[in-house]
Specification:
0% strand, 57% helix, mainly alpha
Length: 74
Amino acid sequence: MDGKGRWVDNVMVERLWRSLKYEGLYLRDYQDLNELERGVARWFAHYNSDRSHQSLGWRTPMEAWSGEAREPAA
């Protein structure tokens, strides 16, 4: 994709992969492909279920997808 303004089309995917690289891949020393696959699966489970996102009103992607409301922090 090229042309003016096309970076906007990929910005969310680029942010996702940047987060995976800096939070999951670069911090670990995976010994083989099976270990890498398990580590990436664990990271995506954490990303979707445990990690809150500012762009989602500090909800997790799973909460946003299911329509759950998060209680404000006291």
